[in-house]
Every structure is written in C-alpha cells, then in structure tokens.
Amino acid sequence: MMRGLHLAFVLLFTILVLYSKDCEAQCAPEDAKAWDPVRNESTYDRDPASINQPDGRPLGYQLDTLDYINDANARSPCVTVTGCINYVDIMVETDPLARICIEDITTDAATRELICQERISSCVPCPSEEVTYQFSCQGSSCDQSAVNFWFRFVLSDPAVLDPELWCFNRNTDEYPSSLYNNVPVPVTRAKTMPTGRGTSLGATFSLTLCAFLTVIFIARQ
C-alpha cells in the first residue's frame, strides 16, 4: 500500500508541475518595450526588402520573437502603447504562420480580452491612455521552434469625429507579407473573448480533483 501511495503522490506532483509549465508567465509592465510608431502612414516603407533588414519597418511594423515554449528562459513579449485616446488599430502577423495571442494586461484580469488568430486585425477602444499588451502562443504553435511576429499599433487621431468609422475604413490587408505580391491577404476582424481568473481557477480545481481521485485509487490497490 505504501508503494502505491508513493507512486500516487509522484504522479500528482508531475501533473501539477506540467500544469504550471503550461501557464503563461505574465510580464511586468515595467519590462515592456515602448511602441515606436511611424506616425505618418504615407511614409511607410513598402519595399519588400525591408522585411529582411535587421531594423526594417515594413508598413510601420516592428519585429519581435515568441520563444520556443520549452526554453527555460522563454518570455512573453510585452509592448506599451502611450497616447491612446479613442481607438487603437492592432495588426499582427507571424512568420512562420502560427496562432498568436495578444492581451491587454493593463486592465483588470476579470475584464480583459484575449485575441488569438494566425493573423490579427482588431480595432478597439482604448482602455486607457497607456496600455501594455502581452503576446503569447496558443496551443502548440511554439512547441517546435521560436516564432517571429510583426506587430503594429495605429492610434486614431483625437480630432476624428467618428473613430468607429475610422476603424471601419482601416485597411485590414496591410501585413508585411502583402508586400511580396499585389493580392492582399483577406482578413476579417478578430472576435474577442473575455478571460479572467475564473477560467484559470476552474482549470486548477478540476486538475487537482482529478489528481486527488487518482491518488485514492492507486493507494487502494
């Protein structure tokens, strides 16, 4: 019986460790890099060669990397956007193609919105004048290698009378990859879903209950 109990606790410990590794570590806002906008969109670099340049800013995008998920030093990149008054147009593209998530970690956890797509195009109201966004991989997107991604934030002009109309008229086809050809990639606006602590706590409770029942079952053998 003692041997069975020992094995059961080893199993419980292993499950909890694996669960903790699966949870995304949230970056601290002070560790976030500042978004450096190209304010005049008419001056965007539209040369495809800019995609392969170390400091290239194709169509105003910046480049970052989502680390290989099993890397002990893996991080979730964060970017802080300042001067957000009305609406912000968010666009993200990965290379190679992978499901990437973006989340505003400035607002309360219970009301945050998580957007996950292979290409993200979302124009949303500014939650505050200074917003920090965190990027992460969804599912198995980063379990084979690191994933590069291009991101861009464009703020609506505070003088715009109808920022919702401004959002509607934004070009949702402008991704770095679109510079390689004249046929833009069709993209629909991302649907958002609320996330909060309730989801994580529910998953933790279910996992712990399952592990506990497993312990009892093995101990009785």
TrEMBL record:
<protein>
    <submittedName>
        <fullName>Uncharacterized protein</fullName>
    </submittedName>
</protein>
<keyword id="KW-0812">Transmembrane</keyword>
<keyword id="KW-0472">Membrane</keyword>
<feature type="signal peptide">
    <location>
        <begin position="1"/>
        <end position="25"/>
    </location>
</feature>
<feature type="transmembrane region" description="Helical">
    <location>
        <begin position="201"/>
        <end position="219"/>
    </location>
</feature>
<keyword id="KW-1133">Transmembrane helix</keyword>
<keyword id="KW-0732">Signal</keyword>
